[in-house]
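[step 3/7] inverse_fold.run input=structure_tokens len=562
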């Protein structure tokens, strides 16, 4: 949908003003953003005394909160990029919460009835007007279907798409400006990051995708009795309304309730760790935000995941890279860690690999020197991301989300069971998965795939070869091969061939002489006769060798002149 220039300019001015009021006006002026956007304004910033009490991260967080849903989501995604931002800012971005004032029940009814094409009372037997949660994109209500099943209904805020589209357009304009006109843009592709953010938040606006994510989780954990995933009611789900089974349990935020219900926090910790590690290592499809509010605990210490809007996905190649890094950490092998980082394509040619290797060795000595049971995965990843920030490495977004999920998991597990270390759980899982990579079945599939490729090659070869012959016949086929420094390499090959030829001559001569000596000794010849015959053979052999050697030298000299 088109956005009017007036509305865009008005929102841009508002964004600039809010950032300026939180102490970023001078920065935007130095970067030339105000001039680029043709904004001339006088802003009344907070007093120096007020700003001095706040860190840059705090002021940035306050700005995002004031700017609304798009920037809150942006901040939450920024909190997963410690390779790009210092820890202090990451820490503040992690504090951004979606909690906002709920919108009216009349708006809720309007959205549901428009999306589902019927009156609210004809769709639900009961619908609780008071929301159980309200966030920047939508809010959640309890309800009961006509069948009597208890469900929760997530409803999107009115006009949220238009507002986010407007902000995304402004963010992309700013990203283009930074890329093209600042030194910072030379290091990082902000336009690419803006596109990734646009994809992420656009996906969150389509509740059908969240429903599909939940279905994928359900399939992945169909054989896991300790992990529960709610069913989606697809006939009551659209891009702006999501209806799923209500999970009746205790939020992982409520530790006191867990104790009161007699639930075992040690078992909960192990079930939680196993489920997240299997999501990452086995499925490559993991919950991107496994904080306590998105996890419920049920009877028998089972766990259930909620809110599947933010999901991380790993290709088989990325999973193998993470397995390599994980094995590097567990084996305390800095070379494996470096190999994994290199394979992420995060390292530019300008990076001093020797210096990076020394820093990885330092990480190994400082962080990984303790027993495996005491290694903190959060500390390891924070050190790696500090190195990425120092060396201007850009780690892939899905990998940083993976690390964020593991760090969140580690914090939860530590609260539930301080004696449990997730690396000790991850090690056997990773070991099994590595074995599957070299299993006979895996190798057999690769051989079969290769055989099919070769089969296609054999099948296509006759026609390709006929075309090749036709081109030769009509004299319109030429091949030009140019090798860099070809002459120098040719000279090296020529010298090597000369040495090889001389060596072969003398080796052949030696073999002939040795064979003759052995043959003479076997026929029982007298010693005097043996010496005389041997002398004649040696003289003849040396004479032939001299002639052969002279001919070889002449041939070599002639080849060098041509």
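[step 3/7] decode complete -> sequence:
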């Amino acid at each position: 949908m088109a956005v009017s220039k007036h509305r865009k300019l008005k929102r841009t001015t508002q964004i600039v003003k809010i950032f300026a009021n939180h102490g970023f006006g001078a920065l935007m002026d130095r970067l030339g953003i105000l001039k680029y956007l043709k904004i001339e304004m006088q802003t009344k910033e907070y007093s120096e005394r007020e700003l001095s009490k706040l860190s840059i991260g705090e002021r940035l967080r306050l700005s995002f909160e004031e700017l609304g849903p798009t920037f809150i989501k942006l901040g939450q995604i920024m909190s997963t990029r410690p390779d790009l931002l210092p820890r202090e800012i990451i820490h503040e971005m992690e504090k951004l919460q979606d909690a906002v004032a709920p919108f009216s029940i009349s708006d809720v009814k309007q959205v549901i009835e428009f999306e589902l094409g019927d009156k609210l009372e004809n769709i639900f037997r009961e619908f609780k007007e008071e929301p159980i949660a309200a966030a920047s994109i939508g809010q959640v209500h309890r309800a009961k279907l006509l069948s009597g099943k208890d469900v929760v209904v997530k409803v999107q805020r009115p006009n949220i798409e238009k507002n986010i589209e407007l902000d995304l357009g402004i963010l992309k304009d700013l990203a283009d400006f930074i890329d093209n006109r600042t030194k910072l843009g030379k290091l990082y592709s902000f336009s690419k990051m803006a596109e990734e953010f646009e994809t992420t938040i656009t996906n969150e606006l389509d509740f059908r995708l969240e429903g599909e994510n939940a279905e994928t989780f359900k399939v992945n954990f169909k054989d896991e009795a300790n992990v529960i995933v709610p069913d989606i009611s697809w006939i009551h789900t659209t891009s702006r309304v999501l209806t799923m089974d209500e999970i009746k349990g205790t939020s992982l935020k409520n530790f006191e309730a867990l104790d009161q219900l007699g639930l075992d926090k040690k078992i909960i910790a192990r079930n939680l760790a196993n489920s997240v590690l299997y999501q990452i290592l086995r499925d490559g499809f993991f919950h991107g935000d496994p904080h306590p509010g998105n996890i419920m605990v049920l009877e028998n210490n089972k766990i259930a995941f909620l809110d599947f809007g933010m999901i991380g996905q790993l290709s088989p190649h990325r999973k193998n890279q993470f397995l390599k890094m994980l094995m590097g950490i567990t084996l305390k092998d800095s070379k494996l860690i470096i190999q994994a980082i290199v394979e992420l394509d995060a390292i530019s040619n300008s990076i001093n690999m020797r210096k990076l290797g020394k820093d990885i060795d330092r990480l190994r000595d400082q962080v990984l020197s303790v027993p495996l049971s005491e290694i903190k995965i959060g500390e390891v990843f924070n050190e790696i991301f500090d190195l990425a920030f120092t060396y201007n490495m850009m780690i892939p977004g899905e990998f940083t989300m993976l690390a964020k999920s593991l760090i969140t998991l580690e914090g939860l597990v530590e609260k539930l069971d301080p004696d449990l270390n997730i690396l000790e759980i991850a090690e056997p899982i990773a070991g099994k998965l590595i074995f599957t990579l070299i299993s006979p079945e895996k190798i057999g599939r690769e051989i079969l795939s290769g055989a099919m490729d070769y089969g296609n090659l054999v099948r296509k070869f006759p026609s390709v070869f006929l075309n090749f012959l036709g081109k030769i016949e009509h004299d319109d086929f030429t091949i030009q091969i140019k090798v860099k420094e070809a002459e120098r390499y040719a000279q090296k090959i020529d010298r090597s061939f000369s040495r090889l030829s001389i060596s072969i001559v003398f080796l052949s001569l030696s073999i002939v002489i040795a064979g003759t000596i052995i043959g003479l000794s076997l026929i029982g010849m007298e010693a005097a006769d043996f010496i005389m015959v041997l002398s004649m053979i040696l003289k003849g052999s040396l004479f032939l060798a001299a002639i052969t050697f002279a001919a070889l030298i002449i041939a070599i000299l002639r080849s060098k002149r041509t």
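[step 4/7] annotate
The longest strand covers residues 138-145.
The chain has four domains: 5-97+167-195, 98-166+196-246, 249-438, 487-561.
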